[in-house]
Amino acid sequence: MRFIARLLGLAALIGGGLAAFTWTVAKRIEKALPPSGRFIQVGDCRLHYVADGAGPPIVMIHGLAGQLLNFPKAGFAPLYRDYRVVAVDRPGSGYSTRPAGASATLSAQAGTVAAFIKALGLDRPLIVGHSFGGAVALALALDHPDCVGGLALVAPATQPTYAVPKLFRGLAVRTPLARRIVAWTLAIPSAMRSRATTMPILFGPEEMPADFPTAAGGMLGLRPSSYYAGSTDMVAMNDDFPGYVARYGSIKVPVGVLYGRGDRVLDHVKHGLAMRSAIPGLTLELVDGGHMLPVTVPDQVVGFIRRMADQVFTSARKQTA
User: What value does the mean pLDDT take over residues 216-232?
Assistant: First the structure.
C-alpha cells in the first residue's frame, strides 16, 4: 500500500508540473496574441470574429484545431476593397467559447454559424470553408440554405473519415474527462516535441512560413482549450456526416472546390475530385500545393474566392433585377 501511495503521489506531482507548464505556456501565448476582433453572444456560445471591408458579404470558417488567423490578414486584405469579409472562430476554437457538454456535431456547428450570420445581418454570404470548415460549410448550405449564397471550399473535408489521419491521432480521445486531463498535461508538451514531424505533414510539400506561429496564429494551438476543442470536434465529426453526403446533390447554390495536388492531410481525389459527381455544376480547381493553402498561397486562394464571388453575387443581382 505504501508503494502504491508513493506511485500515486509521484503521478500527482508529475501531473501538477505538466499542468503548471501548460498554464504558463498558454498565458504567454495569449499575451503575445490577444483577441484581435469583437465578440457576440450566439445562443450558448460567445463567438470571436473579425470583420473588415465593405460590399457583398464573405464569411470564412477555419479548420480543425485552427482559428480565424489561419486566414492571415495580410494575405486576404485584397478582398477588403470589394467585399465585407468576416472571419469567425468556430465554437470552442480560437477565442470563441462553447459550453461544457454542448454538441460539436456538424449540424450543431452549422446551426451556430447560421445564427451568427443572422445576428450580423449578412444577406446570403459566400461561405469560405477550409478543411474541417469545409464540412461545416456544406452542412450550413444543406440545413440553412437561407444563410448561404454560395460555397468556396478550400481543401475541404467532404467525406467521413473513419481511419484517423496520422496528424490528428493525438486528438482521438473519446471521453470529455480524459480529453480534459490530456489537454492539461500531455497535449502541449507532445505538440511542441513533435513539431518537426507534424509540420511537414500539415504544410508539405511547401515549407511552413516563418511567421505562421504569429501572423497566422499557429501559437494559439498550443493551449489546452485549443486541444480540447479540436479533439471534441474530431470525435463528433462523423456523427451526422454520412447523412450530409447523401444530400449533396440537393445543394442549389454555386459551389467551388480548391485543392492542392500534394495535400498530405486529406486525399484530394476522395474529398475533391469525387465532388464533381456529387454536386452538379461544381467548379473544381487544382493547384500545386499542400493542405494549408490559405497560409502558403493566399494569393491563389483569394483569386479562387473572387471567381466564386463573381458567380454568387452576379447571379444574385440578376435575380433581383
Answer: 94
